[in-house]
Amino acid sequence: MTRPVWLIESGVYGPEVEPLAAEVRRQGMDCRSVTYREIVKGPAPLPPGACAIVYGTYPTVRHATLRCGWHPGGWCSPENLDCAAYYPHFAPFLLNRRHEILTGVAAIRDRERLFREFGCGGRVFARPTSTHKLFVGRLIAEGNWETALAPTRYDPDSRVVIAEPQDLGREWRLVVAGDEVVSGSRYAEAGVRSVAPGCPDEILGFAREMLAAVAWRPDDLFLLDVCESAAGLRLVELNGFSCSWLYACDFARVVEVASRLASGGRARVDSDGTRAEDDR
User: Fold this and answer.
1) Is the pTM of the predicted complex or chain greater than 0.85?
2) Domain 96-163, CATH 3.30.1490 — does that match?
3) Is pLDDT at 134 greater than 90 in this prediction?
């Protein structure tokens, strides 16, 4: 069994990434720091056909999975991690149960209607639907609406989620492989960064309830964010494993599972979320 080489993009996660790299090496695998330019322009750090896991920004991971010929390259399927793709599957569990998805251009044009329908205290929540986020999802005041959504003007097809503001308590990030919750970490409390390892049993139970109810998966390995809200526990969003930080997750367990998936010829998840055996 060929074990993967981990390629971690430099300058993305700062010193926080050092324990992750150390764990990869402790488990006997090669871990290298690479730049976006190396991946995109070359010389490539590995030949085509190599077993590799790329971890970094979305553009770097996306190029590696599409152009470098490595397997698996990474886990971050943009078509599946778009809110428009996964919201229908997880609808009963969503934080943003009441929402609207429309193009950014249309959202700018329909400002008055959207604030009338979703506004609270003169603000609404907005975020891009896509993995490649043109702006940071946040509460936006009506007076700042056009400026905040201005990046979407450069891509008239880009879509946004509009939803009503909500008060959040603690938030957790869980690593999921297939039907298994691999590890988890708290990452925020009341909207402020607050990192601590592990998850309460109720969070793990909620995540497992979702996974049991929803057969669809965006990737073989992905991240699932859960929060406390006034309505109870809710799904905040899904994220790509290779493009999102792990906070205080159990690096040993995460590295072991990710490396095993990479080495074993993972099942392929198609754009409709169904699975097929890898044809390698």
Assistant:
1) yes
2) yes
3) no
